[in-house]
Design a protein that fits this description.
The protein is mostly helical. The protein is built from 43 helices and seven strands. The longest helix is centred in the N-terminal third of the chain and has 29 residues, at 2-30. This is TEL2-interacting protein 1.
């Protein structure tokens, strides 16, 4: 039963095979036209492949060599005539052969069949040696051929892969040819899939072959072929998975052929070093059964392998991590498995393994590492020290390379070597000294080779006028320094690798030692690049040392060892040098490169982070110099200064830089004043002061009294230097800008008077309540006058109001007592008045500063520098609204600056005249009627070419494209030429006339009792208040040349604005008002604010002048009705 049960599936499967094999065999044998029958043959072959693979996946126990032989019979008929069939048929047969080998013959392949299949597959893939291919072989066929060849070699009995003394049974020659085909596929430019299958076949050969003498025959060609693919230039054209496969195959070849266990007999012979031993064979050793395996062969092979490895190991610069890991495994395997046989190659293997060694966290504990090998083979430590010293000595030369990857690999190699040296407890003072010099020289080389980056000043994105939003504690963006050296984006990776090397170069003591050796170059070097490189290196080493010490201090206390004290001493010396660099800064002459100053800022900030609030006493020395860099011409230094201030504020416990500077304003201001008082003419003081005021805002202004006094003194001493004077007034302008923002600017003490609003108000009907109030006030005044008339007569005082010079007459006791009481009452009243006056007269320091600054501007408004004159006028415009609420203090200032300010209207520079007009407008708003007589005095008489009126006529003429002398002569209040309005016939106004003489002009009376006054067709109109239609200003304000933004047009607009402010806030005489109206009547339709101001003063005059100019049309008035009278139309201008 069991036999039947077992044979039933096999029999069924056999019947399935038979139904396909018999037709296939008959077709292959009897076919006359192979090409015509190829399709049917291919179908049978694919059917057999599917049957076989399906059975193998389900139950391969019934598949054996006999079934495979049965299927192979028809296949042999097809293969015999393979040249006559298409390659798809051959490919299908080869695929079926692989299934037969893997699941049918397995290890029972006969020697003859093995040799036949080797030759068949080799010829199919590579062609017959010495003959040209009759047709091209597709890539898919080659891939199937290599897969079948690999399966054949893997499944064969290892006994088949040995030399045989029986003629005709030696399979090694056929295998050798197959190996040649594999090597050719690897070295030739073929698709990566073919190369991968060829490498897999090579691995199968060196795994399945146990005879070392056979492998020795294949070794040279295999190493040469794989080395060619792994060496430049082919390695650049090869995919990384092919490179990884080739490296793994090369590792297998070396270990299986030259492994110490494989050739231990030859190694013993080399140790004895006797000539006789080289000629005799070592019995019992498999590797000695061939005459080729001798000590001489081993030496020659090891030498050739070293040459091949030197080319292959160049892959360490490959960017692929997979390739680097495969190469690292190759080096470790050769150092371990071929330690004695490839002893000559240990140096390059150790060097490459050091370069490619991964971090401890990334490396698996199950894999052998280089450190493990050093513990097993102590002699490898000499190679590590030699490699490390060679790398350190050659690092400056490597930094000259144009390839950033090469630089990074060199730096990374030193780092890994240093870590391994520390783990091996290698202590070498020579290596330490060489390392310090090499790092310094390398940084110098990198700095000289790097181009200065094109820095874009991005500080415009930082609003320095908003200190609370500028820099706050915890702002990571403004608390990070930009790199001082190697700042370009292309050098970022190199800079990071260099930083990693410095931070992990060794223990903290070594870093302090290296930093100490740099201090002499920092202090004494005359070469700027050397000094910068030494400074940067020492600072980075100390930072890394402190970081390591902090980690260790959490676990242990090393204070007794003195390392911490030495660390602090070195850093203190570095900090002292930094403060000297900061203190010696001057904008006129920069004694230090900007990189050195930037590093000094970083050292100062780092020291502050270590000391935290204990750093506050150091602010006396460093805060002002750090702030000085805010005015540097270098964007990098400005950014460093902002970052440093941010770190200082955060470390010292301040919420912002504003709080930092305000809290330390006393000695910062002393430093600024000291510079000004010591005749320091450099712009640094003014720029620092301007930035400081801008950062702190109004809170600092009350502390600036002495500083402003020093600025005034500097202005007196250096008034002949326009640039410096302009910088000083920038400071005063910033004081004004921030001072007007103060919320305690008004007079201190008492009840502050509200700001006086000088804006004119139009007449408003009082109504019944207003009339009653007016009558009540009048009656009150009448009653008061009556009561004064009824009071008894009081004689004139007979004593002086003040203390007299004459000797007083003697009085009685009663008289003296009464006089004393009267005097006490008078004294108390006088004291109260004086206290109130004093109380009102007390001013805030900010107010006093602004007053002094405004007074000072009068002396510099005649400066030859137009920009300074303009900035002073803007300063006046800014400060006037802040000072005007106190009229007692402000009006005297107006009297002081008025003469020089009014003359600026005639400035030759238009932008200065525009600023002057704006300043005068602000003065009118603040002083009001106080300027009435002054404006009348400078207005000028009509018909004369002097005064403010003449200036406005000139400005208007230039803006309108007219000549200077043009005026509106001959124009009456009602008649005249009309002045630019297009008026049609029939235009006029209505006047009353007697009905007895003329009667009503019924022709002029419209429907509904309305009299239509039509002024004809004119310019386009727009509705206005009061039932009038006003002409658009576009017809009258457009200049004839220059455009809207020309200087003449803008100056005229400023003049119109000045007139608007004068009429709005200052009481003007009627004559002056009429003259002003005559000047601006043409622009009134487009100037609503000006028109409202003019109408507030005299609306009727404005309406009449607009009507007179023809700027009104379509006014509808109600027909007047009066008994005994009628109204006739009077033509204007005789029409």
């Amino acid at each position: 039963m069991s036999t039947t049960a077992v044979s039933t599936p096999r029999t069924e499967f056999f019947q399935k095979l038979k139904r396909v094999c018999v037709p296939l065999n008959q077709l292959a044998v009897r076919s006359q036209d192979k090409t015509a029958d190829a399709k049917e043959i291919l179908q049978h072959v694919e059917s057999l492949t599917e049957l076989w693979s399906t059975q193998a996946s389900q139950d391969d126990s019934i598949l054996d060599d006999r079934l495979a032989d049965y299927v192979f019979v028809p296949l042999s008929q097809v293969l015999r005539d393979r040249d006559q069939y298409p390659m798809r048929v051959v490919e299908g047969v080869i695929r079926l052969l692989r299934e037969l080998i893997q699941h049918g013959w397995k290890v029972k392949t006969s020697a003859a069949l093995f040799r036949q299949l080797l030759v068949l597959l080799s010829f199919t893939i590579g062609g017959v040696p010495g003959q040209e291919r009759k047709k091209d072989v597709p890539e898919e066929t080659i891939v199937e051929g290599f897969k079948t060849l690999g399966a054949l070699i893997t499944s064969v009995d290892p006994a088949r892969l040995k030399r045989s003394e029986i003629p005709g049974e030696d399979s090694i020659p056929a295998l050798g040819h197959s190996v040649t085909v594999m090597i050719d596929a690897v070295t030739e430019d073929l698709p990566s899939l073919i190369q991968l299958e060829a490498v897999a076949c090579l691995r199968a050969v060196f795994i399945s072959t146990r005879d070392n003498s056979v492998l020795a025959r294949f070794l040279p060609g295999t190493v040469s072929g794989l080395g060619k693919r792994l060496s430049p230039p082919l390695e650049r054209q090869t995919q990384k998975r092919v490179l990884v496969a080739c490296l793994e195959a090369l590792q297998l070849v070396f270990v299986n052929v030259l492994g110490d266990l494989k050739i231990r007999g030859l190694l013993r012979q080399l140790e004895t070093a006797t000539p006789a031993a080289e000629e005799t064979k070592s019995e019992g050793d498999s590797e000695s059964r061939d005459i080729e395996l001798t000590p001489s062969w081993l030496k020659a092979t090891a030498a050739q392998v070293k040459i091949a490895l030197s080319a292959v190991l160049k892959l360490r610069s490959n960017e692929s991590e997979e390739v680097q890991r495969a190469l690292y495994r190759l080096c470790i395997a050769l150092l371990d498995e071929c330690h004695a046989s490839l002893a000559d190659s240990q140096s390059i293997l150790v060097e490459t393994a050091l370069m490619l060694q991964e971090d401890d966290a990334a490396q698996s504990r199950l894999e052998t590492s280089l450190q493990d090998l050093v513990s097993i083979y102590p002699e490898l430590s000499n190679g590590i020290k030699s490699a490390l010293y060679s790398w350190v000595a050659g690092l400056p030369r490597m930094m000259q390379s144009s390839n950033e990857k090469t630089k990074q690999l060199a730096i990374r190699s030193i780092l890994r070597g240093s870590k391994l040296a520390v783990a091996m407890q290698v202590d070498s003072s020579t290596l330490d000294d060489s390392l310090a010099d090499s790092l310094r020289d390398s940084i110098i080389t990198l700095m000289k080779a790097s181009k200065p980056p094109k820095v874009i000043d991005d500080l415009g994105a930082v609003d320095l006028s908003q200190p609370t939003a500028l820099i706050r504690s915890g702002n990571t963006e403004l608390a990070t320094y930009s790199p001082v050296i190697l700042g370009s984006e292309g050098q970022k990776a190199t800079r990071n690798e260099l930083g990693s090397l410095i931070s992990q170069i060794g223990p903290s003591s070594l870093q302090v030692k290296l930093a100490t050796s740099m201090l002499s170059y920092v202090r004494d070097s005359d070469e700027p690049t050397t000094q910068i490189a030494s400074f940067w290196l020492a600072f980075q080493l100390l930072k890394s040392s402190y970081a390591q010490s902090a980690d260790m201090d959490e676990l242990f206390d090393f204070s007794a060892l003195g390392e911490t004290q030495q660390q602090d001493e070195v850093f203190q010396e570095l900090y002292d040098f930094s403060t000297s660099v900061l203190a010696s800064r001057s904008d006129s002459v920069e004694p230090h490169p900007w990189q050195l100053e930037a590093l000094a800022l970083e050292v100062t900030a780092y020291y502050a982070t270590r000391l935290e609030e204990d750093f506050r006493p150091e602010l006396i020395d460093v805060l002002y110099p750090v702030t000085t860099f805010l005015g540097s011409e270098k964007p990098q230094l400005r950014r460093h200064a902002i970052t440093t201030l941010n770190i200082l504020a955060s470390s010292c416990g301040y919420g912002s830089v504003s709080e930092l500077i305000v809290d330390n304003a006393d000695y910062m201001l002393d430093s600024v004043s000291l510079r000004l008082n010591t005749f320091d003419i450099s712009p640094a003081s003014t720029r620092v002061l301007t930035m400081m005021i801008r950062l702190t805002g109004p809170k600092l202004v009350p502390f600036l009294e002495d500083t402003v006094q020093a600025v005034f003194a500097a202005l007196d001493n250096y008034h002949g230097y326009p640039v410096f004077v302009e910088g000083l007034f920038d400071v005063l302008g910033e004081v004004v800008t921030q001072g007007v923002k103060s919320d305690v600017l008004l007079l201190a003490g008492g009840d502050s008077k509200p700001a006086v609003d000088h804006k004119k108000r139009g007449y408003r009907p009082q109504g019944v309540e207003g009339i009653l109030e007016t009558v009540g006030k009048h009656l009150a005044r009448v009653e008061a006058s009556k009561s004064r008339a009824e009071e008894p007569f009081r004689p004139v005082p007979r004593k002086a109001w003040g203390p007299g010079k004459e000797k007083r007459k003697e009085k009685s006791f009663v008289e003296e007592l009464e006089a004393a009481e009267d005097d006490d009452d008078d004294d108390e009243e006088e004291k109260k008045k004086e206290m109130e006056e004093e109380k009102e007269a007390v001013q805030t320091p900010t107010y006093q500063l602004l007053t002094r600054i405004l007074t000072l501007t009068q002396h510099y408004l005649t400066s030859p520098t137009p920009t300074l004159r303009k900035s002073l006028l803007d300063l006046i415009t800014t400060v006037i609204p802040a000072l005007s609420p106190s009229e007692d203090a402000f009006l005297p200032l107006v009297n002081v600056i008025w003469p020089v300010l009014i003359t600026r209207l005639h400035d030759p520079e238009p932008f200065v005249a525009i600023a002057a007009a704006k300043a005068l407008g602000g003065l009118c708003k603040g002083a009001g009627d106080f300027l009435g007589t002054r404006l009348r005095s400078v207005w000028g008489e009509k018909g004369k070419g002097q005064g403010l009126r003449a200036w406005m006529i000139k400005v208007k003429a230039e803006a309108m494209g007219q000549k200077k002398g043009t005026s509106n002569k001959g124009r009456g209040l009602i008649g005249g030429g009309g002045g630019g309005g297009n008026r049609s016939e029939g235009g006029g106004i209505m006047i009353p006339t007697s009905t007895a003489s003329t009667g009503l002009l019924s022709s002029s009376i419209g429907t509904g009792g309305l009299l239509n006054l039509d002024f004809g067709s004119g310019p386009t109109t727009s509705p206005d208040n009061g039932g009038m239609k006003m002409v658009s200003s576009s017809s009258y304000t457009t200049p004839s040349g220059g455009g809207r933004f020309s200087q003449s047009t803008r100056l005229w607009e400023a003049a119109v604005g000045l007139v608007r402010d004068v009429v709005s806030y200052v009481k003007v005489e009627d004559e002056m008002f009429d003259e002003i109206l005559e000047l601006v009547v043409d622009v009134l339709p487009g100037q609503k604010e000006l028109k409202d101001a003019m109408e507030t003063v005299n609306g009727d005059a404005v309406w009449l002048r607009l009507y007179e100019r023809g700027l009104l049309r379509g006014l509808e008035v109600k027909q007047p009705v009066m008994e005994g009278f009628g109204f006739v139309r009077v033509e204007v201008g005789g029409r």
